[in-house]
Design brief:
Elements lengths: L3 E2 L1 E4 L3 H13 L5 E4 L40 H22 L10 E3 L2 E6 L1 H14 L9 E3 L2 H7 L1 H4 L8 E6 L3 E3 L1 H14 L3 E3 L2 E8 L5 E7 L5 E6 L2 E3 L4 H9 L8 E12 L2 H4 L5 E3 L13 E7 L2 E11 L12 H4 L6 H10 L1 H11 L3 H8 L12 E4 L3 E8 L3 E5 L2 E5 L5 E6 L7 H12 L4 H11 L11 H15 L4
Parallel strand pairs: 1-12, 2-3, 2-13, 3-9, 5-15, 13-22
Antiparallel strand pairs: 4-8, 5-7, 6-7, 10-11, 11-12, 14-17, 14-18, 14-19, 15-16, 16-17, 19-20, 21-22
Helix pairs in contact: 1-6, 1-13, 2-13, 2-15
Length: 490
C-alpha cells in the first residue's frame, strides 16, 4: 500500500525548510516528508558559497529603486522588500527564542550594507536615493557621504590609491546583515527531523500525477541504487530551484503554461588573507554593467561562514545549460514546450544586451576579473584572490500580453487552481524573503485554514498581516527587538 502524506516538500533548500517549519508549527499533527535528490540538504542555492549571503533588505541594492525616465526615484519596491525581510528576521528571532535555531552568530552576523558609486551622474542619483530613503522608517540610520575621509572610515579598501578628483559617493546602513543560508537551512531541517518530519536525501522525484481522489502520486528514484518508489500527497511543494520548472511541467497543471527559465551561473573572487579581510567589514554594492541582470550587480562582501571571515567580490556571470549546479546539460532544451517557445524566443530577441554581457563575462580570465575588482579595491593583488564557482540561478521567462515574452527578475509562486500543488521559480531576493514568500503560498494554497492559523502566525511573526513602515514607532521597536535577539545590533 502506498503511504500518504499530508505534505511532500521537494528540494532540500531554505524554501522547503521554511515552509516545513511553518506547517509543523501550524499543524503539528501533519505527516510531512522532504525529498532531496542530493546527498544532503543545502547543497544547491542555499549553500553558503553558492550565494553572496546578503540579507536582502534593499538597503544597498540599487536595482530595487531605479531612476525613472523623469529622474524620480520611487521607494515603494525597496520598502516592500525590506518589509519582507523584517518578517524573516521576526521568524528567525522567534525560533531562536524557542531553541529551534542555534546561537544566532552561527547563521547571521551584523554587517553594514553600503552602496558605492563613481561619476557625476551616479553620485547625483545616489544622493537623490538617499534623500528619499532617509524619510522611510525602515531605512532609519542610513548615512551618505562624498567625503573620502568618511568613506575610508566605513570601508578602507575602497579608498586606497583612489584617483584624485574622481567624483564618488557612498551610503551606509550599519544595521545590515550577512547570512549563512546553508547553516540556517541545516538547522531548520535538523529541528524538523526532531519533530518527526522525514527528511530523505538521495531521493529524486521524477513524476507528479494527480489522482482521482485529489491527491498527488509522487514517483521518485533513489539516486544511489536507482530503486524506484512512490508516495501519495495531499499537498505538494516544489522548492527545487531551477528543477521546479521541470517538475511543474510534468505535473500537467495549466498554470505553468508559457513559463520557461534562463540559467545564469556565477563565480566570485574570494580572499581569506587576514591582512585584507581585516580592512573591510561591509557589503558594498554598486551599479550593474550595461545589459547585466540585477543579480549580477558587482559587490564586495564580508562573509562569515563556519566562524571564518573572508571577502567575496563578484559575481562574474557564467553560462551553463544546467538549471542546477548538479543539473543536466539538457535542461535548457528539455524545458521547451509549444506553449513557452514563443515567449522564450521573444525574450532572446528583446535582450541582446544580456547576451553581449554574458559573452564579455565569459572571455574574462583571472587577471581581467581582478582588474574588475580593482575598480572597487585599487590595491588588490592577483595572488590574494582565488576564483570560486557559485550556484546556478534560473531566471523566469514568461508570456506577456504586450511584449509576447519577458525576462522576469525575482521570485514567483506558481500554484494550481485547487491549491494542491505549488512551486517556486526565480532567484534573488529569494532566501532573504523566504518567510514572506511562504506566507503568501499558505494564503494561496490553504485559504480556508488561515483564520485558524492566524493567531499562531502572529506569535511567530508579529507583523503578520500588517506593514511596519507606516508606523515608525512599531517599526523601530520591531527592528530593535529582533536585532537584540539575533545579536545584530548595529
Amino acid at each position: 500500500m502506498i503511504e500518504t502524506y499530508d505534505a511532500v516538500l521537494i528540494g532540500g533548500g531554505v524554501m522547503s525548510a521554511t515552509l516545513g517549519t511553518l506547517l509543523k508549527e501550524l499543524q503539528p499533527d501533519w505527516k510531512i516528508v522532504v525529498c532531496e535528490r542530493l546527498g544532503d540538504v543545502a547543497l544547491e542555492s542555499s549553500n553558503a558559497w553558492n550565494n553572496a549571503g546578503t540579507g536582502h533588505a534593499a538597503l544597498c541594492e540599487l536595482n530595487y529603486m531605479p531612476e525613472g525616465k523623469d529622474g524620480s526615484v520611487d521607494p515603494a519596491k525597496a520598502v516592500a522588500i525590506n518589509e519582507q525581510f523584517q518578517q524573516s528576521r521576526q521568524l528567525w528571532s522567534s525560533l531562536v527564542e524557542r531553541g529551534v535555531l542555534d546561537e544566532p552568530s552561527t547563521f547571521i552576523n551584523a554587517t553594514p550594507h553600503m552602496t558605492f558609486v563613481r561619476g557625476e551622474k551616479d553620485v547625483a542619483y545616489l544622493k537623490k536615493r538617499y534623500e528619499v530613503l532617509k524619510q522611510q522608517p525602515l531605512f532609519e540610520g542610513i548615512e551618505y557621504s562624498e567625503d573620502s575621509r568618511v568613506i575610508n572610515q566605513w570601508a578602507p579598501l575602497l579608498m586606497q590609491h583612489r584617483r584624485a578628483g574622481e567624483p564618488f559617493a557612498a551610503t551606509r546602513v550599519p544595521a545590515g546583515t550577512d547570512i549563512d543560508f546553508g547553516a540556517l537551512t541545516r538547522q531548520l531541517f535538523g529541528n524538523l527531523k526532531e519533530q518527526g518530519v522525514d527528511v530523505v536525501t538521495d531521493c529524486e522525484v521524477r513524476r507528479l500525477k494527480k489522482q482521482k481522489d485529489g491527491t498527488w502520486k509522487v514517483s521518485y528514484r533513489n539516486t544511489i541504487g536507482r530503486t524506484p518508489g512512490s508516495i501519495n500527497a495531499r499537498f505538494v511543494f516544489v522548492g527545487a530551484g531551477g528543477w521546479a520548472l521541470k517538475l511543474l511541467q510534468r505535473s500537467g497543471i495549466p498554470e505553468i503554461s508559457g513559463y520557461g527559465v534562463f540559467p545564469i551561473g556565477g563565480q566570485f573572487l574570494k580572499t581569506t588573507n587576514p591582512a585584507v579581510v581585516a580592512q573591510h567589514k561591509a557589503k558594498v554594492y554598486s551599479q550593474a554593467s550595461v545589459g547585466a541582470p540585477p543579480m549580477s550587480v558587482p559587490h564586495l562582501d564580508t562573509r562569515v561562514v563556519d566562524g571564518e571571515a573572508s571577502l567575496l567580490f563578484g559575481p562574474f556571470a557564467t553560462f551553463s545549460p544546467k538549471f542546477l549546479k548538479n543539473g543536466s546539460m539538457l535542461d535548457i532544451v528539455t524545458q521547451v514546450r509549444s506553449h513557452n517557445l514563443l515567449p522564450m524566443l521573444k525574450v532572446a530577441i528583446d535582450n541582446p544586451s544580456l547576451i553581449t554581457y554574458l559573452v564579455s563575462e565569459l572571455v574574462k580570465n583571472h587577471a581581467k576579473k581582478v582588474d574588475s575588482l580593482r575598480e572597487f579595491v585599487p590595491t588588490a593583488k592577483d595572488e590574494d584572490w582565488e576564483l570560486i564557482q557559485a550556484g546556478q540561478r534560473a531566471q523566469v521567462m514568461k508570456k506577456d500580453a504586450e511584449k509576447g515574452g519577458v525576462l522576469q527578475f525575482g521570485t514567483e509562486v506558481i500554484a494550481s487552481e485547487d491549491g494542491s500543488i505549488a512551486g517556486l521559480l526565480g532567484a534573488s531576493p529569494g532566501a532573504s524573503t523566504a518567510a514572506s514568500i511562504m506566507l503568501g503560498l499558505l494564503k494561496t494554497c490553504f485559504p480556508e485554514r488561515m483564520g485558524e492559523w492566524e493567531p499562531r502566525l502572529r506569535e511567530l511573526i508579529p507583523s503578520y498581516g500588517e506593514t511596519l513602515n507606516p508606523r515608525p514607532d512599531v517599526a523601530r521597536a520591531s527592528m530593535d527587538a529582533t536585532a537584540a535577539t539575533l545579536g545584530i545590533n548595529a
